Amino acid sequence: MEATLDHLYRETHHWDSSVAFWANLGYGFAEQWGSEPHRAGRLTNGTTSIVLAEVPEDTQPDSVAFLSSGNLEDVAEATNGNIVETHWGTRMISLKDPEGRTVNVEARSGEDS
């Protein structure tokens, strides 16, 4: 079984400041979607990606690691995880690490598993 880091998902209340923060580290938008107050986008720097999403002030910003795997069935079997269809068109397993932090594993782009 193989699962590699795909991207970090980061939520923010401070869109412009967060975009500037990542830009200062060499990240630029590969794609953007949504509109204020629910903007989002994938920022890249080489092979590293950050998905930044604006959330309402009454929401605690979250940060989640997204891994990708060529075989979700193997991941599900090894972790007792459930594969679900996401609203953005992928298949994913959402897991908790021993400290209770979320780690999501999605099917590798272009693969059915």
Q: Which spans of ≥5 residues are poorly predicted at pLDDT below 50? A: none
Helix content: 10-25%
CATH architecture: Roll
The CATH topology turns out to be 2,3-Dihydroxybiphenyl 1,2-Dioxygenase, domain 1
Q: Name the CATH superfamily assignment.
A: 2,3-Dihydroxybiphenyl 1,2-Dioxygenase, domain 1
Major sheet summary line: 8 strands, mixed
Order of helices and strands: EHEEEEHEEE
Describe this structure in words.
It is a single chain. This protein is α+β, with helices and mostly antiparallel strands and 113 residues long. It has a single domain, classed as 2,3-Dihydroxybiphenyl 1,2-Dioxygenase, domain 1 (Roll), CATH 3.10.180. 16% of the residues lie in helices and 44% in strands. It has two helices and eight strands. Strands 2-3-4-1-5-8-7-6 form an eight-stranded mixed β-sheet, with helices on one face. The longest helix is centred in the first third of the chain and has 10 residues, at 15-24.
Short description:
The chain has 113 residues and is an alpha+beta fold. It has helices at 15-24, 72-79, and strands at residues 4-12, 28-33, 40-45, 48-54, 63-69, 83-85, 91-96, 102-107. The protein has 2 helices and 8 strands; from the N terminus they run βαββββαβββ.
Identify the notable features of this structure and list them briefly.
single chain; 113 residues; alpha+beta; 2,3-Dihydroxybiphenyl 1,2-Dioxygenase, domain 1; 2 helices; 8 strands
Topology:
Elements: E1 4-12, H1 15-24, E2 28-33, E3 40-45, E4 48-54, E5 63-69, H2 72-79, E6 83-85, E7 91-96, E8 102-107
